[in-house]
Design goal:
Elements: H1 32-44, H2 49-63
Amino acid sequence: MTTPSEGSEPSEDPAPSRRPRQRKQVLLRLDPQVYEALARWAGDELRSANAQIEFLLRRALAEAGRLPGDTGPLPRRGRPPRGGGPGAAPPP
């Protein structure tokens, strides 16, 4: 019997260099007036309330020096750019 390090199969890297695309889901309870104020602010900046919460949390973490260096960028809003993937419409 061989151990995984002795086998001929390549070993998987325990720390992949790319994060999974799935986003963490959390339940958040807010005072209704706080949510309404947040939703108005988000609308003013053309964001969803969820995107506004993430934006504010990231900014607070960065200001406190607690945002991990390998944190990916905020997901892009709106439609993907033209020619951005399979099945996309060809440029005019």
